[in-house]
Batch of 2 targets.
Target 1
Amino acid sequence: MKQKIFFNSSLPRAGSTLLQNIIGQHPDFYVSPTSGLIDLMLGARIGYNDTREQGYNDSDLWQKGFLNYCKFGFDGFMKAVTDKPYYMDKSRMWGAYYDLVEMIMPKPKVIFMVRDLRSIYSSMEKKFRNNPDKEAYIMNNKEMQGITTPQRVEIYASSQPTGYSVIKLRELILQGIDKKILFLRYEDFCQYPNEHMKTIYEYLEVDYFEHNWNKIQQVTTENDDAHGIFGDHKIRNKLSRLEDDYQQILGDFVSNEIVERNMWFYKYFKYL
């Protein structure tokens, strides 16, 4: 049986690790932690663009060879990792490079979980407050401790991992790629998991599997130290409705600012 690869390209702090481990309950799925597969693809593209011989060869033939190289690279990667028929790869970059992936394989399936940005930034702020001495990788720790919550939120919104992801999300919507991607709101998923998993399996064209929401085992392992403060990938073992506390953490002024600056997001995903 030919293996199939799918992609989880959700926003940070929006349930991507939880979704991976829920899908991992399905016996036919292998689910990855945060993966470097996309980096291998982009590295190959850099080599393709930089190769001097490209200019002296048939450009169409060269491109066809490159895309086939990537396709067989995907196939070889899956075979080396698992013998299961379905592979779900997790990286927030897949949505940003959908057009390239689509050139490599027809109709790639990308799941994109989103979350109220106020909740994402409040989650990041809580991580900082609980681990003020841990490396943040977006600003010097002492400087982070010496500024206010609104200033830290400005940094979260303009830095990796969230700022870049939100920018790329808006770009793919403006390009019309959103029509090919399955978007889910994390809050809705936690409240109505059965309905959303049925939607996911229909989109993936995979037979439905009955999940256990009260016993979610973590099967993915992450190197959280590599992500600093925001590297907490431990999941809840029981799915329950999310309770928002962003107003308590961020305050009304910052919460309102986030909405005003990202009105496109709140309108598109119907958070208002």
Note: The mean pLDDT is 88.
Target 2
Amino acid sequence: MTTNIPYAEVIGDPIAQSKSPLIHKFWLERLAIEANYRAHHVVPADLTGYIAQRSEDPSWRGCNVTLPHKLAIMDLVSDPGGVRDKIGAMNTIVRQEDGSLIGTNTDAAGFMAPIADSDWSGKHAVVIGAGGAARAVLFALKQVGIGEITFVARSGLKATGLLMQASVKGGVLPMDARLPEADILINASPLGMTGKPPLELDLDPLPADALVYDLVYAPLETGLLRAAKKRDLAVVDGLDMLIGQAALAFELFFGATPPMEDDDQLRKLLTA
């Protein structure tokens, strides 16, 4: 598909739940930029063909990448920033003027945005999941000096590999294990997302000052966050990370800084 109007997309499987088009279109309208942003359903078997086709379209500025493509996409684009080695997953692809494609990752910075004012050095984090989002979380936590990370994952081998690669103190637990005491619990898995199985955890081991951060944003209030609120634990929902990583991608796609002063209006739109 070729169009004269610049456009970017978000791709994934499934993709109907994505709120990225609402975010980017909100900013495009606020800045009076004539461009478009849309969701495009891409199944794993079609990923290579999609990238080949879009690279030939000069109006295509790039795409955000969500489940399940954050690892596979790395084999289809260039990696000048060393994202493969540093994080091991890509969530943003940007088309250059010559048609070449560069991959990067805005998830790590987006993840840290709502919790950057806290001191995480030497603290203990529990991360649910060991996929692309968990890789970005691991990178971000290491950058701020986290002391220990415990992965809770279905694939213990994959999670162990992440810890070894990052050279971070920690351990791996199965999904049905009792949680350890921790300063922050992060759900970096799709569990709890609309259409996915629920994430069922006993939060009793967490201390009263622990923070529970769920990267899932559909639904906005997940079962995990409801359970955390019942214990009066501090919570962060997935919209904060979504908006943070989207802002970085928006600049790459459209060459303009999003009007972050309109965040309250944007959040109302996303939760309507």
Note: Residues 71 and 160 are 17 Å apart (CA to CA).
